[in-house]
Amino acid sequence: MTANQIRTAYLNFFRSQGHTLVPSAPLVPENDPTTLFTGSGMQPIVPYLLGAPHPEGTRIADSQKCFRSQDIEEVGDNRHTTFFEMLGNWSFGDYFKQEQIAWMWHFLTEELKLDPKRLHFTCFVGNDDLGIPKDTESAELWQKLFRDKGLEVGIGENSEVEGIGEGQHIFYYNEKKNWWSRAGVPGNMPVGEPGGPDTEMFWDFGSEKELHEVSAWKDEPCHVNCDCGRFMEIGNNVFMEYKRIEGGFEKLAQQNVDFGGGLERLMAAKMDNPDIFVGDIFDALRSHLETLSSKVYSSEGEYTYAFRVVMDHMRASVFLIADGVLPSNTDQGYVLRRLLRRAVRYADVLGIDSGNLSSCVLPLVTTYRESYPVLEIKQNDIAGVINEEENKFRETLSKGMRELEKRITDKTLSGKDAFDLFTTYGFPLEMTQEIALEKGIAVDELEYRDEFEKHKELSRTASAGKFKGGLADNSAKVTAFHTATHLMLAALRKELGEDVHQAGSNITEERTRFDFTYGQKVSREILDKIELYVNAAMEAGATVGTTVMLKDEAKANGVEGSFWEKYPDNVTVYQVVGSDGTIYSQELCGGPHVTNTEEIKAFGRFRITKEEASSAGVRRIKAIFE
Description:
42% of the residues are buried. By secondary structure, the protein is an alpha+beta fold. The protein has helices at 3-16, 46-49, 97-111, 136-148, 159-162, 175-178, 263-271, 283-293, 304-322, 331-349, 361-368, 374-377, 379-407, 415-425, 429-438, 445-458, 476-496, 524-539, 551-556, and strands at 20-21, 59-67, 83-92, 119-124, 154-156, 168-173, 179-180, 194-204, 231-245, 248-262, 412-413, 442-443, 470-471, 502-507, 512-517, 543-550, 570-577, 583-588, 606-615, 618-625. The protein is built from 19 helices and 20 strands. Strand 14 (502-507) and strand 15 (512-517) form a beta hairpin. The strands form four sheets. Strands 1, 2, 3, 4, 5, 6, 7, 8, 9 and 10 form a ten-stranded mixed sheet that branches. Strands 13-14-15-20-19 form a five-stranded mixed sheet, with helices on one face. The chain folds into three domains: 3-21 and 97-276, 2-Layer Sandwich (BirA Bifunctional Protein, domain 2); 281-464; 470-625, Threonyl-tRNA Synthetase, Chain A, domain 2 (2-Layer Sandwich). The protein is globular and about 75 Å long.
């Protein structure tokens, strides 16, 4: 089976079990300033796990695009990537453990036809201090499913210490392994965060002798969470039934299921090869890089690391750019710039001629056009961004390398010098550290951080005002700003035309900061009209509500929204309607709003304090209540 066939089989199977298929959310999360990227399938689903009704009902499934910048340093082994697809299915207070475990067993053993003798599962051992019991139910459900296949398997209680006992395929682990929330272990969870025990699924790539005994962990017991490479986690069933409160946990109002399975890892299990980079999902790009470099990829070779870095970073960059991220020196743009510049470095290692990175877009479009048609639509724009960034970096790369050599003293590089390389030559700290490491040189990272903080203060971009996007919290004032910001966009479109769309927002209790698509400076006269519109809507005491409607109907009715393709067939539309029927604003939005615009007046008059360029073709407005 190809990766595309695995994705299709998964979605079709869960559709047959009554799930509505929904499109992937974007890689840059909406209304969530806690993180730069969507790093898991669960992340866009949190409001519904906490009880908000999903417009598509209580059973949904998807293939979610994910990006984890913290995995950049891990790329180079046979299983880590920064971008990946997470196959997911959710129950919002509908089915629970019995149905989910039976479905996953069926999908693995019947749809993918994986050998059950090679499957292993882990469950939560429980924590008396947290008041959360041992998950014997999940362990016994897996055991029964093995038995139904004619296989008697044992349950291991302490495999980390004792290793895998004879015939054991099910194991208990503590919350470091078998508890899931966005914040990790229970002790790290903020108040209000949902989480729960999970049961994870593993594939066994070979015998202990073949893999464990030749690894760095050969003197330790082998178990499914061992790092020797024998086992790979391919999926995680989270039973999301708890919420963090002051002093402990309480049960959520509903029992939820949150499954996530890595498409690339399921592909590795299906082809029984732990190197995901030989999977068909990379075939077109890998072949293209082999042609450009006149080298052949192998799972263990002189150029393996460089091939994997370029393959991963180019795939991630194409998807990030398609979702609106552009190279910059801050936030998401900084991460994209770092990916592209590392790709340039390792393309050089492969001997690929300069100016060729943008040619990697076509093989990726070829691979993903059916599942993500937006890549083909934006193909030329994506290639243009990559080409411009490569050219820009190459202009300074050789100069920067010479400067780095000059600044090395006594096998060290000062933090100030490293920061100068960043500001003058565009060398991200991590890249300078990589080059330094290759030369056996240490970089003073603490001094670099000090220099960076000074620069931020001088540039008036201190971290308190960092533009991450979304809402700082759901306080009354932030909620009022959120509704006022939507009114402001409606006014901008009224005054400047319907080509104006949201390009990003960041809202705190002090102000709203809003990016929108427009190619020139907005005059003060127009800004005054926009202020007047927002304040008039506040005075009107207009009703604010939400309606679930068909996506096509919403578009036909003039509802504002960007990236329509990311929404399911049924959408949540927020509307501000006056008593006389005047529609002040209507947009796709599931965030918090006031119930009546009069509530906003409690915080003062809405005033625009600044309008400026944000990036090419994008303007930024800052506004306050006074």
